[in-house]
Write a structure and sequence with these properties.
Structural class: alpha+beta
Number of helices: 12
Radius of gyration: 23 Å
Strand order of the largest sheet: 1-9-8-7-2-3-4-18
Distance between the termini: 50 Å
Length: about 400
């Protein structure tokens, strides 16, 4: 499957769980036939229970619901929590569930990192927001800053088709060779246009990264990238610096208060190369940044689940929506500019590590280790991700019925 640019869409930017959850829950409550939901994290907290309730309501009124969770990101949902949904008819699957070793999760790589909701054939949501209270602004200092898109229109059909083709039993034929797809060109640029793109470990390994590279090559005036886990490869780093050197204002927003310290260590290894090349780097200091968004000039933008790091670019299953719309672009720009002005510290040369042979050597070693280690581990044949279906619990009255049938010789 390969999607094309679709025109005539209605596109809305949703910031944080404050805007995202009410929109998703309202759409599910209005579902007429089918809901498909994929997410990396679903916690059994206040937000997770709200999602549970809205899905249960929909299932009890006959809506067909399919849920796919990542086995690493959502390992702790209680049996009671899940069984109540499966008893109501919800099809509930885990991507690559793994047993624990000394209490530690072992399924570290090749995660199902997408965050997608499709309701009927009318509305879809794509972004980076999981289902947990930490995505609400009232969570406190650790509340995450993040984004998603609500979209209606023809592109919803593409997202739905993608979901249906990737359900068990409907997988597309895999070829022994790996085709490389060039970024889908928008040959008739206009407004309200959208393109659904994804990354998998088959024929679409580099699709999202290629769209970023094409965007940077085409930029004329401005690029803003806000990415939570920023540690891309050489090609994307070169493209950012090349754009800055030809006069494009390239602004990069990264975490200044990361939820994992290694994130700042990795990103700062790149500061010297980027700042010296003219890229403006801003550390977001208000709270952890979890967004994966970007914009170019006054028309191109993307929102999705893909970070610009080795996991997202080399191993994870990811999905982004690319938008060609001036109003949406301006809305996202205003939001990101607000972060830069109010909550960011610009990285200047005084914050960049001095260029010494020691720092250069350490940087090269650490860069290559961090860049390639996840991919090398992911090659291990012992780690082949699978889908696990959670079966509905056997109801007590059904057990009694089966027992009667056996005692009567199968006659009723």
């Amino acid at each position: 499957m390969r999607c094309s640019w679709q025109e005539g869409n209605r596109i809305t930017l949703l910031e944080n769980g404050d805007n995202y959850y009410p929109a998703v829950f309202k759409a599910i409550d209005r579902a007429q036939q089918k809901v498909i939901l994929e997410t990396f994290i679903w916690f059994e907290d206040e937000v997770g229970k709200q999602l549970h309730n809205v899905l249960l309501r929909a299932a009890l009124r006959g809506i067909k619901i399919e849920v796919l969770l990542d086995g690493y990101g959502s390992p702790d949902l209680s049996d009671e929590f899940v069984n109540e949904l499966t008893s109501a008819g919800v099809i509930f699957r885990y991507y690559d569930p793994g047993s624990r070793l000394f209490g530690m999760r072992t399924n570290l790589f090749r995660r199902m990192h997408r965050k997608i909701v499709v309701v009927d054939e009318t509305v879809a949501f794509v972004g980076g927001i999981n289902y947990s209270a930490e995505h609400m602004s009232d969570y406190g200092p650790e509340a995450k800053q993040d984004y998603a898109i609500r979209i209606e229109g023809p592109v919803v059909q593409d997202i739905l088709l993608f979901e249906l083709e990737n359900l068990p039993g409907n997988n597309a034929v895999r070829r022994w060779w790996k085709r490389r797809h060039r970024p889908e060109e928008n040959r008739k640029p206009g407004e309200a246009q959208a393109l659904f793109v994804w990354r998998d470990n088959g024929e679409h390994r580099n699709d999202i990264e290629r769209h970023y590279l094409k965007m940077l090559a085409n930029a004329k005036r401005e690029v803003i990238i806000a990415n939570a886990y920023f540690f891309p490869g050489y090609r994307l780093l070169h493209a950012m610096r090349n754009a800055a050197r030809r006069g494009v204002r390239v602004k990069l927003i990264v975490q200044g208060e990361p939820d994992m310290p290694i994130v700042k260590v990795g990103a700062r290894l790149l500061y010297n190369y980027l700042v010296k090349g003219g890229v403006q780097i801003y550390e977001y200091r208000r709270r952890p940044l979890h967004g994966k968004v970007a914009l170019m000039d006054d028309h191109w933008a993307t929102v999705g689940s893909s970070n610009l790091d080795p996991l997202s670019l080399s191993l994870n299953l990811e999905a982004n929506l690319i938008v060609h719309d001036r109003q949406f672009n301006q809305t996202l720009r205003d939001n990101l500019q607000g972060l830069i002005v109010n909550d960011c510290v610009r990285v200047d040369e005084s914050m960049v590590p001095k260029r010494t042979w020691w720092n250069l050597g350490i940087g090269v070693v650490v860069f290559h280790f961090l860049r390639h280690f996840p991919a090398m581990v992911g090659w291990l044949p012992a780690h082949t991700p699978k889908l696990a279906l959670v079966n509905p619990p056997v109801q007590p009255e059904m057990e009694t019925q089966d027992r009667v049938e056996v005692e009567d010789g199968g006659k009723t």
